[in-house]
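JOB MANIFEST
job_type = single_chain_structure
chain_count = 1
residues = 345
[input]
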Amino acid sequence: METKINETAEIKYTAKDFSSGLDVKWCPGCGDYSILAQVQKTSPDFGEKKENIVWVSGIGCSSRFPYYMNTFGFHGIHGRAAAIATGVKLANPKLQVWVATGDGDMLSIGGNHFIHACRKNINLKIVMFNNRIYGLTKGQYSPTSEKGKITKSSPYGTVDFPFNSIKLATGSGATFVARSLDRDPKHLQEMISRAAKHKGAAFIEVLQNCPIFNDGAFFHLTEKETKGDNVLFLEHKKPLVFGANKDKGIKLDGLNPVIVDLNDGKHSINDCWVHDEFDDNPTRVFLLARFTDIPNFPTPIGVFRQFIKPTYDEDYVGQIESVIGKKGKGTYEKLMFGNSIWEVN
């Protein structure tokens, strides 16, 4: 008898059940350790049996991830994780398919596969470890490195403009777009859990420290002394307020975000932009995503937007079933020796 994928009520998993037991080989202090720990802690709540979960990766430090998860996994080739994961999902739509990738792997050589996975709304969960550097290949600048970044491959500073991955995922059609931090375990757990429950292309950017080649890139967002003034937590139906004393707000002046002082006697929390992660209009997401491009603005973390639309894998399976219902199952012989043949003289 076929076992339903969600029959997990009788199974009580713990985080240990999702650990492969292999020695984890990342540099001491690497943010990847935290991401792995939060995934293992939240996996028991996915509502899936271990054998129905698959982790797919490409190439990079992050791409060792499948080895450390006690689930099925596939260590692919550079940049192809989204394409391989798409194939896995279409071959067996009952599987919950995750992608572990880095900013270089996913947004450089893998950029084309990424945008099309989002465009098609494949029911994948993509976790992108963003440390703004190529770590495995020893410190070249990546597609998310800031302009002017001095690295081994840009000794006088890169002249490239970086990708804004939130804009890219949103513009490409991802139906769940979020950001978190490696050093905020509870928040990261929440984002992972919410992505697991989403039906469609889910993308989480995790800002992650590389202690060897880009140490401290996000310390202004993670350290106690500076976090309050530099991080904006996005919460549904809550006003955009930040600051160590919650005394700063964001309001909209037309389509321009403006920081206001909530203690100046001129502004109050009622003037602040109220976040709506279910907004049908993606315009506000692009405005939020711009915050990281504007000097002195806080970095938003949380769910930027989520919505539901048909997934590619559902429509794909439905189309096949519909055609079989009308025409019956095809055969290899009919395909290869049918009427669609050409003779070349």
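[summary]
Residues 83 and 113 are 6 Å apart (CA to CA).
The domain at 15-222+310-316 is CATH 3.40.50.970 (Rossmann fold).
exit_status = 0
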